[in-house]
Amino acid sequence: ITANPNSSATAYTGASSGSLSADLVKLQTNLAYADNRTVVNAGIRGGTVHYDRKKTGEGTDDDVLSFTAGGTHTASASVRSADASLSGINVAANVVRARMKGEQNVYISNANVITTGAVSLRSEMDQSATATLNAPGKNVSLAGIQVNCAIATADAAVRAYILNSRVEAGSLSLYAGGDVTATPTMTQSDTSLELINVGVTQLYSFAK
Q: What predicted TM-score, i.e. pTM, was given to this entire model?
């Protein structure tokens, strides 16, 4: 039994990435929220499983009855900067939040499993949350940004378990793990900037 889905959530706001020339631009708030909630289950619940391929001459004692779940799951939120000349920009707030919450279960529950080979339960999930504040683009002058806030949250629950079951096997292995990252970032501009005023910049990351 195998389940290997991938999922992603992406949100962005800010100035156009195309050709743009603007004067006296006033924006009250730029908000970008990306939320990804993913639940993956792979296993059996109830009943009896007899797995013996040797009876048909197809298998050996090294055969493995495997239950596996994996995949990559992401949430990404960003404020995009303009790539053309802008002047007189006034943004009250840039707020980006990326929230990734993943749960994955690989299990044998309330069942009987009988095999001459091995039984393997493996649950591995990689997930990340990225919140990015991009610096102003080309030739920006008189830009006033009162608040910058980037929040990245990644919350993972990865399990491999046997519950209220009987397992008769040559060997038994269980593994649960993966990588969890939460990354808030603010990029630096490498182009011409004049009189840039940023009141408060806050970057938060939470991973568990």
A: 0.75
